[in-house]
Amino acid sequence: MKSILIAVSTLVVFASASFAAAPDVIELKKNVKFNHKAHAAAVNDCTKCHTAAAGGKIDGFGKDIAHKMCKECHTTMQKGPTTCKKCHL
């Protein structure tokens, strides 16, 4: 039982440390600023965007993935910009 508690505690510490390491705002190409902190709080599930719950870079992330993944999520949740000029300031 003690080893299970230690393992769970370790997992929580590492998960929170990786989340804390993420910048609040990420500046992407084409004058797009992504508020990571706001998205993380709103979605509350890193695997919606990242492969692992610990986060990290998104493999292959670029224009095509951003347009598909981000716009699709904004449309589904009916929140956030879905037009060019709302993201590209």
Secondary-structure blueprint of this entry?
Blueprint: H1 2-21, E1 25-28, E2 32-35, H2 36-43, H3 63-77, H4 84-87
Antiparallel strand pairs: 1-2
Could you please describe the fold and organization of this structure?
- The chain has 89 residues and is mainly α.
- It has a single domain (2-87), classed as Cytochrome C3, CATH 3.90.10.
- It has four helices and two strands, in the order αββααα.
- A two-stranded antiparallel ribbon has the order 1-2.
- Strand 1 and strand 2 (32-35) form a beta hairpin.
- The termini are far apart.
- Mean pLDDT is 81; it is low at 4-19.
Termini, distance in Å? 53 Å
The CATH architecture category equals: Alpha-Beta Complex
CATH superfamily: Cytochrome C3
- Helices, by number, come to 4
**Hey, roughly how much beta strand do the residues contain?**
5-15%
* Rg from Cα: 16 Å
Average pLDDT, all residues: 81
Give the fraction of residues assigned to helices: 40-55%
Overall, the morphology is globular
Number of domains: 1
Number of strands: 2
Return the CATH topology: Cytochrome C3
Order of helices and strands: HEEHHH
Can you summarize this structure?
The chain is mainly α and 89 residues long. The chain has helices spanning 2-21, 36-43, 63-77, 84-87, and strands at 25-28, 32-35.
Features:
4 helices, Cytochrome C3, 9% strand, mainly alpha, 89 residues
